[in-house]
Design a protein that fits this description.
The chain is mainly alpha-helical. It has 2 domains: 60 residues; 89 residues, Orthogonal Bundle (434 Repressor (Amino-terminal Domain)), CATH 1.10.260. It has 6 helices and 2 strands, in the order H-H-H-H-H-H-E-E. The protein has a two-stranded antiparallel sheet with strand order 1-2. It is elongated.
Length: 156
């Protein structure tokens, strides 16, 4: 995951370099007599790496535009919080100032994708950014009914 503008710029440069490398590699393999499916199999690792880097660049660009993925569970809360910082156009240092912590703390948190963050801390960060969190129940529990015969509560 790209977390900073410097990483983004390096990734853009790397994509351009990889394009040149892939083209040179393809020409080299063609010169050795490879073609068709065999050539594509040889090229696949380089192309796969290139596509992964391209996806990371596109994800960073979406975050910069404020286009954050919908949060469906807390498994990806760390990446979402990093995206929030990026969407607001803040550096890690500016984020630290906003939260009243050291830049080293923000760097550590982001490096670990906020692993082990508490709900209270998530709430604090969201409040600092003015973000409201809402949840939906996919499969709601049916309303409770009282069974008057033996005073048991049962689901409808």
């Amino acid at each position: 995951m790209i977390r900073t503008e410097a990483e983004y710029n390096r990734s853009i440069e790397r994509l351009e370099e990889e394009n040149e490398i892939i083209n040179a590699q393809r020409l080299h393999f063609i010169g050795l007599g490879y073609e068709g499916e065999e050539l594509e199999r040889l090229m696949q690792p380089s192309i796969s790496f290139h596509e992964q880097l391209k996806e990371e660049v596109e994800a960073y660009e979406r975050m910069k535009r404020g286009d954050l993925d919908q949060l469906h569970d807390f498994n990806n809360i760390g990446r979402w919080l990093i995206g929030l910082r990026i969407a607001f156009g803040l550096t890690q240092k500016e984020m630290a100032e906003k939260l009243g912590v050291s830049p080293a703390q923000v760097s550590r948190d982001e490096t670990n994708d906020y692993h082990g963050i508490t709900i209270e801390r998530v709430q604090y960060i969201l409040e600092k950014f003015g973000v409201k969190f809402t949840a939906e129940i996919e499969n709601p529990i049916p309303p409770l009914k009282s069974n008057s015969e033996n005073n048991n509560i049962v689901y409808a």
